[in-house]
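Section 5.1 Outputs to date
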Amino acid sequence: MEYTPEACRKARLAMRDTLDVVGGKWKLVLLTILRRGKRRFRELSREADISPRILSKELQEMEMNGLVSRTVLDTKPITVEYALTPYSETLDEVLNAMEKWGQTHRQKIMST
């Protein structure tokens, strides 16, 4: 890859776009949880240890970006279930690389 000013500008723009979609404290955590299967709203809240208000906001943004689907179940009381969309699979390589890096980093920090 050539590092011209134009290539660097495009790379920064692409990185900013990526971070706009998956950045923040919770989105990557939620994606990781949902990789193991569908979850109801309360399950996600408990498993991620996130408040319902913040979870609702994060899930709305993820749904708007096509990463999660929301299904209202015909139960009493009504429950809502969330799942990853096929489009979210485009992040698999990124998530796997981040998990691997995080494990390596944790080992490095813990051994010093």
